[in-house]
Amino acid sequence: MARADSVARYAEWMQSHVGKSPELRIAIYRVIYGSRLYSASVAIAVILIALLMPLIAKAEYLPISLQRLITLTVNDHPLVRGDVLEVSASELDVTAAQRQWWPTVSAVMETDSGNVTSGPSRALQVEQTLWDGGKISAGIAHANAGLAKSEARVIWQRQQLALQVVAAWQQLIGARDKLGVAGQTMDRLRTYEAQMRRRVAADASPSIDLELVLSRIRQTEVELSSARSALRAAAQRLEQLSGVAGLDERTGDLPLWPNPETVRQSSVPVVTADLSTYARDSFAVQVAKGDAQIVAAQLDAKRAERWPTAYVRLVKPLGNSSGSFSDSQVVDNSPAVFLGVRYTPGAGFATGVQADALSARVASVDQSVEAAYREQREAMTADREDFTSSLERLRALEDAVAGAQQVLDSYSRQFTAGRKTWIDLLNAVRELSQNQFAQAESQAAMTAALYRLQLRQGRTQLLP
Asked: What is the reported pTM?
């Protein structure tokens, strides 16, 4: 009984550590309370739980990082799973297209109509295409083009999802930083409020100065509320993409942006790369090329329909075959081999017109490939310019923040000495907070632009 009670207390302690893992908690409880009926199993249950503890801690306290969120998103998102299934279907399409070269086996079994002059058809046929003007080859090319497009689309879809994760991550960390700036500003203003209340009570300052600092506090409360809303929205977006919940409640676990100098050094091979080459080889262009190859294969198949199909056919009658016969007749059931030509130009010889229409579509899809290339090159160029401008702006803002902090410290001393007014001091606080907000935005924009540029270039491990 004492052993069972100790295990029960250990189970209660475990509940606080596996609260976020209900399936694991249920499994552990089954081991614990099931073992209470068998005293010999108590020690085994405790040992199993002890062995599970490192796994529990690792599952619940994995560090939050952009790379981890991207990995979770691109591996488990429904859009990716759907595209992967499409690849499997395309592989089967290729197999089916290749089997068109195989012989076609058919069997005909008809019932007896009762007509003594015309019997039912009962035969086994095997037909092999000898030449079809390239129709089967065009079908295989069509299936291969569809497979190549499906494979490229999987990677393209992952890239698009990763870009969405980067955008949400930028909003999340940016909102976290703004929340910190607003909190520091609020603490500073609360200190000034307490100071001004003492001065007003001592008739050292007019009451309007207290109203002024209260007004600035209300403005900062609005900024705090906006930052919290942006943080929750970004966390919810990341939760929908990656499945990781509670990001807005773990702001203390969120990493800081990399050091700007580290970002600058890591950006050299990315920013100086030939963007035109990366754009031409991008997966968006590969998807567009897949569409072009599919239409080209359709055109080849339609052109092949202008030609007849040569084939060989083996027919093996089964029982009494069709034809005029009587009971006294002897039916020849020996197999027969035929060489034939089949030609189907379509109603009104429309095959040629349809081929001309597909030829125009091929030219149209080729333009889509060029459009995809230009779109990718424009996006990469915009990311590079965004990174460069944000880096320059960040350098200026770092100096601006340092200068604003020095001004605020100086004004605080001068206000105490009576050489600066209360409004001068509060304006200095406001200027410092605005520069810090701008610094947070520039830091987020700079790093996110570098991440986007790496993703568009096909890199999977983001630096720094």
From this structure: 0.80
